[in-house]
Amino acid sequence: MSARATRLRRALSSARSIVVVVAAAVWLLPAVFVVAGSFKPDALVLSEANGWRALWPSHPTLSNYGDVLRRVQFGRILFNSFVINLGIVGGGLVVNSLAGYALARLRFRGRALILAIVLALLVVPLEAIAVPLFYQMTVLGGRDTYWAQILPFVANAFSVYLFYSFFLDFPRELEEAARVDGASTLRTFVEVVVPNSAPAFASVTIVTLLLYWGLYLWPLMITSSVDVRPLPLGLASFRTLPPLQWGDIMAFAVMMVVPAIVLFLALQRWFVAGIATVGVKR
Amino acid sequence: MSSVRRSGRAARILDAPLLLTLPALVGLLLFVGLPFALAVGMSFTNLRLGSPLPLEWVGLEQYTRLLGDETFRRALVNNAYFAAVIVPVQTALALAAALAVDGSFRGRGFARAAFFIPALFPMAMVAVVWELIYAPGAQGPLNAVGQALGVWMPRDFLRDPVLAMPSLMVLSVWQGMGLQMVILLAGLQAIPRDLYESARLDGAGAWSRFVHVTLPQLRNPLVFVVVITALLAFRLFDQVQILTRGGPGDATTTVMYEAVTAAFTRQQVGAASAMSVVFFCVVVLITALGRRAFRQEASTA
Amino acid sequence: MAISHRLQCRSILSALLCAAACGSPDGAANELVVEVWAHSGQEAERAVLEAQVDRFDQAHAPLRVELTLIPEGAYDEQVQSAALAGDLPDVLELDGPFVAAYAWQGHLLPLDALLPDSLLASLLPSIVEQGRYRDRLWALGSYDSGLGLFARRSALEAAGIPVPTSPPEAWKVDDLDAWMTRLAEADEDGAVLDLHLNYPGEWYTYAFAPAVRSAGGALLDVGELRAHGALDAPASVGAMAHIQRWIADGRVDPNVDDAAFVEGRVPLSWSGHWDFARYREAWGDDVVALPLPDFGEGTRTGQGSWVWAVTANASDAEASAAWIRFLLTEPEVEAMASANAAVPARISSAEASPLYGPQGALRILYEQLQGGFAVPRPRTPAYPIVTSAFQEAFDAVRSGQDVEATLTEAAEVVDQEIADNRGYPPTTGSR
Questions:
Q1: What is the domain count for chain B?
Q2: How far is CA B285 from the centre of its chain?
């Protein structure tokens, strides 16, 4: 390739780099606003909101974070959120991947019916069934427990559908190779399909987390003690009568998102590594 | 030889495909299907939370009331409006972002994280923050930007009958785009590079490669993203409850918002259940039509 | 929930013994716990409440209180869920106007037998009235609220505006319009009034129902249990339309930062006692409390605040009532009132209060309560739907929608709900 073409290529690449990075920075502005606000005294959050100073704390303070820790037992509710989401995600990965795989790969009687049921239930939002589900869980003695916040959400139509979609595209040769060796479906799944489906599992984890990390209505109904309450209910403590303490709210937002970001960054690397190994695709 | 056969048989029992789907199926039926069936049942009654009055069967009365209710009809329209705008816009933006971030260049990691991070904010949080951004008067950040650029005078976005819904759309896209981008990115990165190579060797330009290689290969993830975005759009609730409470007038009310406020604020569980059932039927209809239009296939490559 | 030991005191006599300051008849091993749920309000209020729990525990050992503070934003949902599950505490704090609804649903126990008449006589009539429904007493608050128009005297004097010093002297609303125009001339952005439009929910009903009443309208005909003819009456429509004009004319500051008055952007603030402390901090003696404007039939103001009730779930009604009695003793009433600047529930405390006593800065708010200028929000089990409909209507009105259509629709919603509830017939709970 000629020297000019190479230089053109490189220039385009830099231009692209700049454009994309600037776009990403603009996209991130509201988030920067929140982070900056979390370090400002309440009054300044509002009074500085309409200028460049909205994005930078001129008199940084940690008082908001202190407030949050004081008013809300942050450590405890963070722990509760972890436990609950770990249960939902962990259980979900096992249960939903099995179902998605079976639906994508295997021919069996009732497959179409089950698929239809899954799709139908996909549409039912939590708000529509919250009240009857509440009655059910109360009868089963689930009030104020972890399991009542985990079990109803382990089997998830979204996740089944996601796995189903991914496994439709899974290269058959790998499975066929295992089958020739005499492995059962389950073993094939566990030893061959799963290790090569890192993107699918990573995506489902992310999707599930995004759905349930911020869940508010359900825990509100089914719990009353801090012992088992998750993070989003801490937010309610700040949505009292005004004056709203914006600084505290923003600090809470940051504290709530940081664990999720950390998890995402960790998963991201695994996700990327997973991509590399899937390179068996022709 | 015999030991292999024995373990083979034991494994076969566990193997039955039905068994593999069983845990998920049981869970879904028990915790989604059953409550929904109960909700359907409740929609034929006048059930009210905590009411000392006796429960009565009212047949289809809840439904006839709904059909005659202007607010509910408006809610359906609003849901359709919201979905009709959000689905193409958010999907297009997600695709653009995924394409922008796919490849290696300086700042790629930053860009990818930046586009995704808003998705990590729970919608309730996003709504609270954008409430501040949309603040009326010259104090509001968005108004300040608009004034500085000379584009508009300070407005009360969330109380303007015309601007309220679009305002909700903007913040919804801001939060929702990240997830769709990640899914499309995974799809993009799964496209075998040699397909591009052979296309390039055949003399295809960048646009042609996009249309003839990328898009077809992205078919399944794209369909998935569109379906999920549409479904989530129909469930629109959090932002409405926090920011506009259905107003101004009925400009931003949605089916889910009406159902939840009916159930929890007015304790009208019977009416709320009827709304959920109607909502379910409408969405199933749309999804069925959608699937017929974009039939999803296993890749045969 | 913590594991607690509850002693079921079967007779009132032994209950009284248990609740007395001495040890329990069965020995020191038993504990009597009263579960109390309260709303998590301002920091000062919370601090006082927790101190009150300590003092109660000391004075009434072995009886003790287990306090759970619930964020206000989620209070009603929380209580309703608990009620559904049969999980209500012994004592519940609730927002005054909702007493009738809770009583009708059977969640509360009447207090008539549990509290001495002498106690009731020592309280402000508005306090007692708030807690009554169908001739029984269901709840009592340890403070009441004061609502009025706060102003900067210097701004008024500079514009030559007379300052009312008692409720009958309240400005006529048309005069107020003229005064506001005058004030707007001296004001940067023409916005001279703060209506606290940034407050969500119940504020709308609390703050603006008095305007409707002042015009001769009402939210509901409580006797007939009908909203049509009250909420959509010409008088009600007129009052709301008037407020809508203020907003449309740009006279009202959106108050996003809740500091319109404090920062001096507006000289007038439609607000309640809770704001007084920071107003005084900002402007000292220049702050003056005025009655709300007269929309035609004389000034009216709001009343009612958080009240305490014993739930039907209480394992020991006497012990639960002991907590309420304790909160209504003079030192406790004054402790809370000095923390939140509200109107103390006891007449003697109010008269002796620096804020509400004869020389107090907020005397006028007290006079409103005593002089019959304060109107309670409709005391009916229909109140939840009334307030929800009114709030929605106000939201629409403030965005410029047609007032008459909005109020007519709201009235229909309320009437439909009342019909669905068969007019709230007396039930075993509330008989």
A1: 1
A2: 16
C244/C383 same-domain check: yes
DSSP assignment of C53-107:
HHHHHHHHTTEEEEEEEEEGGGHHHHHHHHHHTT---SEEEEEGGGHHHHHHHT-
Q: List per-residue pLDDT tens for chain B, 301 residues long.
A: 444 444 555 555 555 777 888 889 999 999 999 999 999 999 999 888 778 888 888 889 999 999 888 889 999 999 999 999 999 999 999 999 998 888 778 788 888 889 988 988 888 788 888 888 888 877 788 888 888 887 777 778 888 888 899 999 999 999 999 888 888 887 888 788 888 888 888 887 878 888 888 888 888 778 878 887 888 888 888 888 888 888 787 889 999 889 888 887 777 888 988 998 888 888 878 777 777 776 654 443 3
Does the residue C277 lie in any domain?
Answer: yes
Report the residue from A43, A221, A241 with minimal CB separation from C81. Answer: A221
Q: How far apart are CA C151 and CA B141, in angstroms?
A: 29
Together in a domain, C178 and C35? no
Q: Considering only CA atoms, which of C364, C297, C343, C407 is closest in space to residue C130? A: C343
C97 and C141 in a single domain? The answer is yes
Q: Looking at beta carbons, which residues of chain C come within 8 Å of B48?
A: 420-421
- pLDDT of A154 > 90? The answer is yes
Residues C129 and C165 in one domain: no
**Given CB atoms, is A39 within the 8 Å cutoff of chain B?**
no
Q: What is the pTM of this model?
A: 0.82
**C196 shares a domain with C323:** no
Residue C429 lies in a domain: no
> Where would I find the beta strands (DSSP E) of chain B?
none
The residue ranking higher by pLDDT, A211 or A148, is A148
Residues A168 and A103: their CA atoms lie apart, in Å, by: 9
**Nearest by Cα to C336 from C57, C48, C93, C50:** C48
In a domain, C138, yes or no: yes
What's the pLDDT band for C259 if we cut at 50, 70, 90?
A: confident
Q: Is A243 on the interface with C (CB under 8 A)?
A: yes
Asked if the structure places residue C381 within a domain, the reply is: yes
Does residue A138 sit at the C interface (CB-CB below 8 Å)? Answer: yes
Structure-model confidence comparison of residues B279 and A43, the more confident one: B279
So what's the ipTM on this one?
Answer: 0.79
Nearest CA in chain A to C80: A221
- What is the sign of the dihedral through the CA atoms of A162, A168, A171 and A173? positive
Give the domain extent around C100. 12-145+304-362
Could you give the C-alpha distances from A129 to A45, A217, B42, in angstroms and in order?
A: 39, 11, 11
Same structural domain for residues C198 and C224?
yes
Asked if residue C226 and residue C204 are part of one domain, the reply reads yes
Percent of chain C scoring above 90 in pLDDT? 61
Q: What CATH code is carried by the domain that includes residue C351?
A: 3.40.190.10
Q: Please indicate, yes or no, if residue B215 is contained in any of the structural domains.
A: yes
SS3 state at C136:
strand
Q: Using the beta-carbon criterion (under 8 Å), do B28 and A157 form an inter-chain contact?
A: yes
Of the residues C335, C362, C389, the one at which a domain ends: C362
Q: Which of A139, A221, A222 to mutate to test the interface with C (most CBs of C within 10 A)?
A: A221
- Closest Cβ opposite residue A46 in set C73, C78, C256: C256
Nearest CB among A124, A246, A249 relative to B36 is that of A124
Give the CATH number, domain containing residue B230. 1.10.3720.10
Q: What is the residue range of B186's domain? A: 70-293
Is B12 among the domain residues? no
Instruction: Kindly list the residues from chain A whose CB atom is less than 8 angstroms away from the CB atom of residue B28.
Output: 117-118, 121, 155-157, 160
